[in-house]
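Recap quiz, item 2
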Amino acid sequence: MTTALASPGVSRRAGRRRTLRASDLLSRSGRLVLMLALALVFLTPLLWMLSASLRTEADIARNPLGFIPQTWEWGNYARAFDAISPFLLNSVRLAAINVVGVLVVASAAGYAFGRLRFAGRDVAFFLVLATAIIPSIVLLIPQYIIFQHIGWVDTQYPLWVPRVMTPVFGTFLMRQAFLTLPQELEDAARVDGVSVFGIYARIMLPQVTPALAAVGVFTFVESWNDLFGPLIFINSTELQTLPIALAQFQGEFFTTTNLLMAASAITIVPVIVVYVLAQRYFVQGIASSGLKG
Amino acid sequence: MATLIAERPKAAVRPSRRRALRQQTLTGWLFIAPLVLGILLWQVAPVFVSLFSSFTDWDGITDPTLIGGANYADLLHDGLFWTTLGNTVAFTVGVLPLTLVAALGLALLCNAGGRVSNAFFRTAYFTPYVTSLVAIGLVWTKLLAPRGPLNTVLSAVGVTGPSWLTDAHWAMPAVIVVSAWQGVGYPMVILLAGLQGIPESLYEAAKVDGARAWRRFRSITLPLLTPQIFFVLITQFITSFQIFALIFVLTKGGPGNATNVYIYYLYQNAFTFGRLGYASAMAWVLFLIIGIVTLLQLRLQRRWVFYS
């Protein structure tokens, strides 16, 4: 994109190779500056949140733009934590259940769809994929009606049972991963008399850890950031998850910007940490979804 | 993988073979049982419940009353239905090109540099995408406040910034920009994967032929990227047409109904006004709109999407 910048006007005597290198350097540094500026655009709101979470309210009011706190108010986090710890606990517990549950259900189904042969397999796989076109909003109201009938409204079941039992994208990713494994692995185990379940659990599953990581991270982020579920199915304050509690009770708990930003940071930062640690798998998972499209 | 069974010695007696087949089927279905059960319970059954309830007057507590197509007919005369539909279209028309162009630009930048810097910048641009929309929405509420950081910057250059989120003219553009900022990472990663799939040899050949950067972009990059652009267009349309979370946190549909969008109005109908039947009808109309537009896009793709 920027390589055309430096190519004209350089004397021919300098030699083709050297001009290319000089132009490379110029365009490379130009691009780097641009990319840095853009990175700042993308990260500034998050940096501002962190900075505001560590300042006094008066400090923020006096200078909304400042990024360096006059005094570092680490106590803000202790106070925010006090207010949100029950919701944080709910979110952590739900995320753990969802990740483990989805990994079990999606990897078992993905293995069967990818490696086992049985009557009705392709019809079942088609049925599973076909449900992906139904917008979640269409399902929300009837799910609410169903949960009300079975007494699940205002319990935490709606926040994990349906998610754990319908990991369509996760099953798809797991199936793709299992399909790439060589047949010899299974054959050898079968000759040794390992059961189908043993082959799945002990031989094949360890081979697809990148896909498991991708599905796990996706599930964690989805569960943690879920808005509709807790908003619609939960009424009791003590059952609420972190993001919804933040939105609904902000006036009650956090009348000040600094505490609200500290609570926001506690909500946002764990996901960013998980994402940065596992981003290779995360990005691969997204990229493969696009390639199939 | 299919050959394994066929290659077994033919000598095997029939009954035992049939038993083995039955055993295989049972095993397979056991593996997929939780998923299939889940799909039936939490997706297929709700579809029928939703379809049924869209033809009823139902508050969710007392028994439903069948009212035929009245909900659908009422929608046509509901001014707010049209307002929110219009706002949703406006939001989509604003956010879709912005996101697409930004994602393409960022993907090109991230594809051009060294490996380490690319990973770093890709991570930075993608980060907003994993943040909770509620929490990051609260941060933006502060950033866009009348005396918040943004207006402080503006006043430093002599501009009096509006009250972004409560100004009828500025609320929607503000939501669009925040939404693009938050959502651009996903399409960027998809486009980046597409860029990385384009063989370097094509560019080298074009360079030998004297094609400049812009020409190479137009004649190689863009055509070979059309499958990914198409995918992004379809998925982004579907998600942007269902905008809810940012509206819920930033504006609550206000000021007036300036940013009241389809799903927000649907949510209000179902869970604030207790009109579950009416809201179900809205959900189906939305499904229909999204379905038609997606089908249209699928038909049109033959004209411009290039599959090598």
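Residues 1-53 of chain A form one domain.
DSSP finds 15 helices and no strands in chain A.
End of item.
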